[in-house]
Amino acid sequence: MTEENNTAPLEGKFIVLAVTGGIASYKSIELARLLTLDGAQVQPILTQNARAFVQALPFQILTGHMPIEAMFPIEGGRHPGDMPHISLTDRSDLIVLAPATANIIAKFARGMGDDFVSTLLLSAKAPVIVAPAMNPRMWANPAVRENVHLLRSHGHLVMEPGAGRMARAEEGQGRGRMPEPSEILTEVRRLLLPEPDLAGLRLLVSAGPTREKWDAVRFLSNRSSGIMGFALASVACLRGAEVTLVSGPVSLPDPPGVRTIRVESTDEMRTAALNAWKNMDAAIMAAAVADFRPANPISGKQKKESGSASIELERTPDIIAEMGHKKGNRVLVGFAAETDNLKENALDKLRRKQLDLIVANAVSGEDDAMGSETSRAHLFDASGAEEAFPLLEKHALAEFILDRVAKMWEKNR
Ligand code: C5P
Fold first, then answer.
1. pTM (global) more than 0.85
2. Is 222 assigned a catalytic role?
3. How do residues 194-238 score in pLDDT, each as one tens digit?
4. CB 335 near ligand 1, within 6 Å
């Protein structure tokens, strides 16, 4: 897989983003940004009602395409002589309707075409993703339910709106909130990307540092950012794996589609990881687990008036080594963060911990991988064979590591 593919998976795809009038239309600006960042060409369309909530300008700046706002754009003549609803549907790989009001859902379900968006939908050849947003009472209305049912029976993907607090507090709780832009992006990728090679793989990933408590406010930890583990989890999920991510404290949001378990200490990570490992086909343990912890943590706060202080440290349990003992023919990948003797130390760890593959990277000097977006990694397998990579974005490295996992998993099946 090329680096280009990794950074822009929707490269070459043409997506129509149709925005109808609801308070959630501001979220579609973020969706336009995510789709464009993912490499897609995005043509926004705003209905007259959408224009009451959002301006065309942010969509134009983010996507590089002037939003279409009317059926007959005589004024300004942006597409003279053209039948833009037909030419657009000819070109598009996907139409995303977000937010979709009860009104557009009704028009789409019943085949009405009285404005640009509804007419475009009538001539759609590409799949349509509908991201509804409305008051929970409207979503529960039998006529809306019937229209949603009709659209689904016509083969369109109508997402479930989110539950919980609405934009306006007085609208109360219940289903009606537009699905988050990142959730819509996941559906877009799922529909447009080729057959995933990791479908059926149950994968555990660990990420981030662990924190070992010293007193009520202080802890020992390390510089790990979690970027590598989160990249592995989200790339594996996109490639079809069923991913469980166990992460120590990091500032990254849960990757869409990944079951994410947040932990603090090594003990908590151990419990979560060993529990999950029972039902996994493979694990990639990218966490920078603390090797030592205070032997006698203090329940209150250590007073500085007591002058100097010392902490007695004890070893933490080696989680991956325990997993290695219960490995069977499953795939187990570890990481080795080294400041020197990369190969020797990595191979020693691979053997001691009974791993199939170890990803070794430097954590000092100019290629320091810890906390960085990039890494210069060397992979070693159980035969001692080495594969060296240039400095790569961690997302790109994740693709290569997952290629190796896919091969080993295939062989073991
Ligand atoms: O021995 P070292 O800490 O260098 O080994 C790194 C590998 O072992 C990583 O995959 C890390 O997630 C794992 N590890 C672990 N439990 C520990 C220490 C490391 O699972 N206590």
1. no
2. yes
3. 777 899 999 999 999 999 999 999 999 999 999 999 999 988 998
4. yes
